[in-house]
Target: SnoaL-like domain-containing protein
Amino acid sequence: MTDIHAQDLAARYIALWSEPDAELRRRAIEELWAEGGAHILQPPQEIREIAAGLGFDSTTLQAHGYDELDVRVTRSYERFVAPGQFTFQARDGAVRLHDVVKLNWEMVPVGGGEAVGGGLEVLVLDENGRITTDYMFPGI
Model:
């Protein structure tokens, strides 16, 4: 497997979510993920509770392939970063074990201040060091 430093991958991964240029975002998606790669999100507790109230035992949100990943990242950018209030940053301490990278991230106010959100990311990599599956667990 490609020699990848976990913290470097974490920085590139998190930078993608704050990238304002749509073409650069798409290029970063294609560089980070393997073709057909997936982003699987455990939704926030509020959404899980609403789903349970509707009779769903579990709720998982998924994006597969470059086009769906592009939509997912773009919508996150538009909601959280584009208005100019927040940005995302990787926290220190990313680690790699074989083909798995674990990292933590946070959403912070532009200009500094305490994190208002964040989460855990578990990335499964292919033999070329590209993401095949990205498991996101939001929440601080």
Notes: The chain is about 35% helix and 35% strand. The domain at 6-138 is CATH 3.10.450.50 (Nuclear Transport Factor 2; Chain: A,). The first helix runs from residue 6 to 17. Strands lie at 33-41, 61-64, 86-90, 95-97, 100-109, 117-125, 131-138.
